[in-house]
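Hey,
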Amino acid sequence: MASISAAILLGAIFVAAGILVAWRWTLPGQLTSAISLWIMNCILVIVFIARFFSPIEPTVAALYTFPFYALVVPVRAWHTYRMRTRRSS
């Protein structure tokens, strides 16, 4: 349970970092930056583990990509929030 929590926490940090890096960009650029930063790190971990360990380790690492799908909800909420604030200004 602690490792899933850590994966979600790190995912949230990566998404927030992606948004902060692209703060002055357009909304699609912000979302692309956030999602790209998160998924790239997950894929790099899986590739690294597959190269040096047995097949069970990459399978477990692939399961940790599921928090990515959970993080789609806050990213979508960010998109909705930004669209509302853009219309009101």
